[in-house]
Design goal:
Length: 301
């Protein structure tokens, strides 16, 4: 009787060790039932790096879902022998393979990997002036992704390989104003075409002052000096306020205090400057809004 009890005490640990040994690496053994289960694991990558937030679905002998971690790794555990399919899904991405069939037969499966590719779209349109395509317009894309391109001979432009998101397209070309000034767009599962703009040629435009090459006017003692400047088309005039009071350089007739909206410096304090580029031949009177008796003229030949 005593020997029989001893045999029972020793057999228990051996049975446990036998079950653990049978389970092996990557498998799980239920010590209460002796049942061995397995796992399927792998990684989802995008351009060589792990992609998080991918929903991984398991179907077949049993079903489950999980999500890839910050390194793109996933794992399904507690699986019986059987036939399964692993399928990744995340909005805005495609996957290779689309789904992976796997058979679990006495061993866990590792390295069941997927490669993700971002779905991309395009934004395109045309810039026209007086009904014809306008070339040489700088088109700037900002927000979700940034890019710059230029309209072709027909005024057309395209931004390609864009992921879903919010974007703003802004046109610019010296000597032109645009309607709309910019265009806010949302890419969501489809290309956007006909993101068009209309350009209007302007006679004068405030520009960033260059380091040289300007015709200079001093604002001093409530006078524009010289008060009459003659330039060629596309030349730039630079005004500098040397007074200790605020002035403006506003296109229009000072005597009638009527601005004509061709250019307006806004308030210029002491040391303030403004540069205006003139594109079309003509005479352009201007004045100071705060002191309407201060007048001048730019003549473009």
């Amino acid at each position: 009787m005593r020997n029989s009890r001893l045999r029972g005490l020793w057999l228990g640990p051996f049975l446990i060790l036998a079950i653990v040994g049978l389970a092996g690496c990557g498998t799980t053994a239920d010590l209460s039932t002796g049942k061995v289960t397995y796992s399927i694991s792998g990684q989802v990558t995008l351009t060589g790096s792990g992609l998080s937030g991918v929903t991984m679905s398991l179907n077949g002998t049993s079903s489950a879902t999980t999500t890839t971690d910050s390194s793109g790794n996933y794992s399904f555990t507690g699986l019986d022998n059987g036939v399964y399919a692993v399928t990744p899904d995340r909005a805005g991405f495609t996957f290779t393979p689309v789904s992976s069939p796997q058979t679990v037969s006495g061993v866990s499966l590792t390295g069941i990997n997927f490669t993700a590719s971002a779905l991309t779209y395009s934004i395109s349109g045309q810039v026209t002036s007086s009904g014809s395509g306008l070339s040489g317009v700088t088109m700037t894309l900002s927000d979700t992704h940034s890019a710059i391109t230029t309209t072709d001979a027909g005024g057309n432009y395209t931004f390609a390989n864009l992921v879903s998101g919010s974007y703003t397209v802004t046109p610019s070309r010296t000597g032109y104003s645009f309607s709309p000034a910019d265009n806010s767009l949302t890419l969501s599962g489809a290309n956007i075409s006909a993101a068009d703009f209309t350009a209007s040629q302007v006679v004068a435009q405030i520009v960033t002052c260059p380091s040289s090459g300007t015709d200079n006017v001093s604002i001093l003692n409530f006078l524009f000096t010289p008060d009459n400047v003659t330039i060629s088309a596309n030349d730039i005039v630079k005004w500098t306020n040397n007074d200790f009071v605020t002035h403006t350089v506003t296109s229009g007739v000072g005597a009638t205090s009527t601005p004509d909206d061709k250019f307006n410096s806004g308030s210029l304090g002491n040391g303030g400057t403004v540069c205006v580029q003139f594109f079309q031949v003509g005479a352009y009177p201007y004045y100071c809004i705060f002191h309407t008796y201060m007048i001048g003229t730019v003549t473009v030949q």
